[in-house]
Amino acid sequence: MAIPSPVILNQLGPVVGARLAVHPSRPTVWEHEPGRAPWDLPTGVDVLLTRPLIGWDAAPSAPPHGWGDGLRWIQSASTGMDFYPPWLLEGRRTVTCARGVSAEAIADYVMTAILAFEKRWDAIRLRGPEDWRRETLGSLSGKRLGLVGFGAIGRAVAERARAFGLVVGAVRRSGWAQPEPGVDPFERLEDLAAASDHLVLALPLTATTHGLIGAGLLAHAKPGLHLVNVARGALLDQDGLLAALDSGRIAGATLDVTDPEPLPTGHPFYRHPAIRLTPHVSWSSPDVDRRLADRVLANLDAYVRGEPLRDVVDADTGY
Questions:
Q1: Sorted alphabetically, which keywords does the UniProt record give (predicted)?
Q2: What is the pTM of this model?
Q3: Which domains are present in the chain?
């Protein structure tokens, strides 16, 4: 059933707001008030456009009485839904995410991390003539890249990695019903870790993936492994990673995410020579707001026509 003029609460900022203002459906748009709880909806709202890190971490364990009455569609600016309370996915409303919006930016970050590791980018930087020396640099060609998760991010990483001569393997939750060109299918994460020179975590955080990369898995990883995490910090046993680095089993880690974020003052990740820590920025790019707005407006077009929306979240799996 078509929705001729939706009532929208926009918590995504001015770029999306400007696009909503000229949408042909002439929506009524409420802009988010700073300091107001993101679940505190004005009366009559049927569309909520929201994002993490605006107060959802303080959401009550159960929805407030009458929450979401009349709400038909929720669009998240993120791919992962772990920032939100579980009750956001409950009910008969449709929830969609921004799957793939930042995939290219994240894939660029991953390749930067791998190149910096193999080419020893920090070690060869000269600060004076006393640093001048010959070094043997690594190569990407023929090395194995393992992808833990093969959604939009995994696909974008694989495309770039093959161009550099990396051999790509992957594990995925849904299995391998048919071959993926240029990607070696792995059924077991343990086998992928044991075969990979670079292991990239690119999967959602759910109850079943929490702590997936533990001390046991790292102990059996290929010696010299470089681990890259661009997904969620809680996928990884951080104490187990430290032990694996200190033992020399793991050669390095590039972490754009941690648990918690930020890590507290004095955490060993800040000073560990084998860890490159960045502040959860792999998703960012100059055009990310435009790309998000394009996705939101395409879904709004479908919504007002009564057509299926893109990137609907499965309430059972949480992504």
A1: NAD, Oxidoreductase
A2: 0.94
A3: 7-100+286-305 (3.40.50.720), 103-277 (3.40.50.720)
